[in-house]
Amino acid sequence: MAKYTGITVGPIIRTLNMANSTGELWGASYIFSYIVRKIIERIQEHNQIILPYYDKNTLNNIEGGLLPDRIIIKGEVKEIEKIVENVISEIIKEIEEGLRNVKIDYRAVKSYVQNYFQIYYKTIDLKEEDNIILEMSKYLDVLELQQSYIPVENENYVSIHISNENTKKQILELKQNEEDTILMKYKKEGKDIIRFPSVTEIAAMDILMKDKKRFQVGPSSEDYYNRLKKEINYEKIKKAHKYYAIVQADGDSIGKIIKSLKKEDDYKKFSQCLFEFAKDSIDIIKKHHGLPIYAGGDDLLFIMPVIYENRTVFDVIDELSRNFENTLKKEFKESTATLSFGVSINYHRYPLYESLEVARELLFVNAKNYKDINEKEKNAVSFRFNKHSGKEFEKTFNKESGTYRIFKDILNAKLDTKVLTGVNTKIFRDEITIKEIIKKENKLKNYFQNNFDEDVHKENDYIKIVQNFINTYASEHYETDMIKEIYSILRFIKFIKEEDS
Asked: What angle (nearest 5°) sits at the alpha carbon of residue 294, between those of residues 288 and 298?
């Protein structure tokens, strides 16, 4: 028998939901990475840490969420209660420092913070043949069900802290030396301004990157896009430039790898794989003008423009998926682990916290439970497109399906929007006819030949692609509302490609 100690830190979701801006969201995530870092710093000298993998650079890295919210240690941690108390005391000092420009009751702050942060720990005895991660996870899951009770919440000091200007300034001082950041930098009244981009600016990042004047645009406002056209001299603003995506991801079939772990070296390799993926993910997201919120192990949360440089958010999803699978297969050849995604696409003025909740629901309710007609499970992307008008469209794809591949092909193809409109209109008009022939390939082919026989159609591969898309969709989906779903998908693709009026 050997002793192992597990530590869990929270409440993450509750804190993220307090955020009303991108900077607050990043700061909310950073708090927990900071807490985990401080705990590791205090125990690493005398204890062997199994999870998470880290090095000196990791502990100095200020990315929000690079360290996950659970720690597993070999042995019993001496004076763990005192270590946790000291970390909480340090957080209290940080919050008090951040709120020095606010009139507050510091005794109330201390009491509130001590109750708010949920740092739980448990030491257990395990046999040599026991799986350390699986056994410890059972106990940590139970611990996370506990909720600290805050008797009176007249003031939410954590929320006040992450939204406070002093706190934002401290966070920006941490990040401003990064080379590949998407922080907004510009001059205002002769002063250098640095801040996190708003969701409006992230949505329009494709435009802002066209010109070095991107940093002189300033904060968003009602006429933001008109000013972009004038200041950046960029006329081709698309409708999708006014929409942002919140993306949340989680690993599938990770449990199979965990069950295969036998030796301590196996656990280290597994933890290091997840760390390497998380670190690479931050680079991939930044490369495509996104803002990483957290990347802890196989969990990701980030904000992206919907379109950028003739690519879409779905291209980033595919790149992250490939990297995840390849990283794990380097050490675990038999790995079948994949990533599932929830993607909430919203108008730039849509509340951030609502978009977060939608992305989480799409991931854990839709994508993680997805099974198509051919029994393909998980490995899915579930997205909801919420138009400014209030209309919604929602769809879930298995990422290995032919339907998703063709969906991506159409998204990335250069197409005439007039042709798109014509095809969509006829499919909507002929819904009953297409429904009758959708699984009869020759009749569907005749339908397309008879209805799209003009020169503009013959010169455009889009007609053949759509026909192939309908054939493939019919073979991979159930018949209920199939034509309406196809029509909605094609409408979404048309929206992505349309210029703003």
From this structure: 95
